[in-house]
UniProtKB/TrEMBL annotation:
The chain crosses the membrane at residues 252-271. It comes from Sphingomonas ginkgonis. This is Cytochrome c1. Heme c binds at residues 75, 78-79, 207. The keyword Transmembrane helix applies. Signal peptide: none annotated. Binds 1 heme c group covalently per subunit. Pfam families: Cytochrom_C1. Its cofactor is heme c. It is found in: Membrane. Keywords: Heme, Iron, Membrane, Metal-binding, Transmembrane, Transmembrane helix.
Length: 307
């Protein structure tokens, strides 16, 4: 009796839960939560194809050098590259003498301590230094950028969903907010000091458009420095900073696949060799041997024996 009451109570609970689930599901289907203005206006990065894409991708050294030029002439005014050292530029094809010069000419000096007085000071960068931050500290960086912190760019193509195409779309994606748009979505109106950019997660970014006119940098290799080209080059450069060993990884992956293919073929032949004896042994012999049975059946038929 007690057990039956227990079942009934349990059943009551299950019924109540199912009913409430049903009404919630019905509600969610009938009145879906409307997309917010940010969700409606936010854009996915436009496709970008780089030489380093895909399993056979290799860096285009000339493009990386152009990208480095854009970084050093434009982006480095606000962004550091703290995981990249000047000597790493050798991988882009710069000679040690060129690297030494790039480091000692770098606009931002490197923080150090005066060995005589112990006071904080700065010195010219050396090839062994990492690209310094243009700001002394976070407070100074925020004070200069409308309270936003320009992130270190070394790993940015790994840190942001969309990678290099995102960086390319972001820096070429600034747009004017039309009065129509503001009327329709008053909540996304750009506050003073920010800039409307539909590729940025919350649509209004503190970074002013860094690349504004064609020819902002002068390329030595004859490539036309359009805004789009400069954005592409700097995005390619930031793929390299985030993964300088990308080519090694691609090469190792390829070697591993070839090795595994050979391994599979060898494993198949090894299997055939090892099982060759055993397979012969389980061949049907005696009365179960199909050949033997065929002869038997024939003889039975000849002598009129059934079964
Ligand atoms: C005047 C300073 C300034 C310059 C120059 C500048 N940036 Fe920025 N950048 C910022 C600030 C500030 C932010 C942070 C924006 C925010 O959080 O709203 C930022 C953010 C970014 C972000 C991260 C966006 C995200 O998803 O969080 C990327 C990528 C970026 N900048 C790339 C570049 C590149 C590439 C250049 C050079 C072509 C450049 N920036 C030049 C100030 C600058």
């Amino acid at each position: 009796m007690v057990r039956k009451i227990g079942y009934l109570v349990g059943f009551g609970f299950v019924l109540a839960l199912l009913l409430s689930l049903w009404s919630n599901v019905k509600d969610a289907i009938a009145n879906p939560t409307p997309e917010s203005a940010t969700e409606q206006l936010h854009k996915e990065p436009r496709p970008l194809s780089l030489a380093s894409d895909g399993p056979f991708g290799r860096f285009d050294r000339a493009q990386l050098q152009r990208g480095f030029q854009v970084y050093s002439e434009v982006c480095s005014a606000c962004h550091s590259l703290k995981y990249v050292a000047f000597y790493d530029l050798a991988q882009l094809g710069y000679t040690p003498a060129e690297i030494k010069k790039i480091a000692s000419d770098w606009k931002t000096e490197v923080p150090t301590v005066n060995p005589d007085t112990g006071e904080a000071s700065t010195r010219k960068a050396l090839a062994s230094d990492h690209f310094p931050s243009p700001f002394a500290n976070e407070t100074a960086a925020r004070a200069a950028n409308n309270n936003a912190l320009p992130p270190d760019l070394s790993l940015i193509t790994k840190a942001r969903e969309g990678g290099a195409p995102y960086v390319h779309s972001l820096i070429t994606g600034y747009a004017a907010q039309t009065p129509d748009l503001v009327r329709k979505y008053p909540e996304v109106k750009t506050p003073t000091g920010l800039h409307y950019n539909p590729y940025f997660a919350n649509l209004n970014i503190a970074m002013p458009p860094p690349l504004t006119s064609d020819g902002q940098v002068e390329y030595k290799d004859g490539t036309k420095p359009t805004v789009d080209q400069m954005a592409k080059d700097v995005s390619a450069f930031l793929v390299w900073t985030a993964e300088p060993k990308l080519e090694n990884r691609h090469r190792a992956g390829l070697a591993a696949i070839v090795f595994l293919l050979f391994g599979t073929v060898f494993a198949y032949f090894a299997y055939r060799t090892i099982w060759a004896e055993a397979k012969r042994k389980v061949q049907a012999k005696g009365p179960l041997d199909p050949e033997h049975r065929a002869t038997m059946d024939k003889q039975k038929a000849e002598h009129g024996i059934a079964g």
